Amino acid sequence: MPKIARAFARTRNQFNLWMELMTAIDNCPEVVPCTNFPDLFFPESANGHALKDIREAQRMCSSCPIQLKCAIYGLEAEESDGVWGGLSLYDRKKLKKRYGSIRKASEALKIRYRQFTEDGIQADKR
Ligand code: SF4
Q: What is the b/e burial string over 37-49, where b = at least 16 CB atoms within 10 angstroms of the residue's CB?
């Protein structure tokens, strides 16, 4: 596939993922936690005092009903900033490296999340 076609396909995929996430947020029965604390989710750095903000954002994501969809968005759209679905940029990079590609990392994330919810720990998030 020519480079320009690949870039277009990637942009279109990111747009579709973004629209899916926005629809999920709109349809969410409760206000998603990040709405009220945007600064926590987009700290200026990934160390020092900002680490505390990242951990707090991740804690909030763990109770969000659309956590998986959000994490998949952050991963597949290759967001270069912020906490998405409980994953920081460092977490997303680590997943991509561990699984060799974004697609494989995304699949692994879905399987892991399914196993997690099937254990009944977060069954309300399905
Ligand atoms: S998972 Fe986290 S970042 Fe995503 S919508 Fe929910 S609270 Fe916001």
A: eeebbebeeeeee
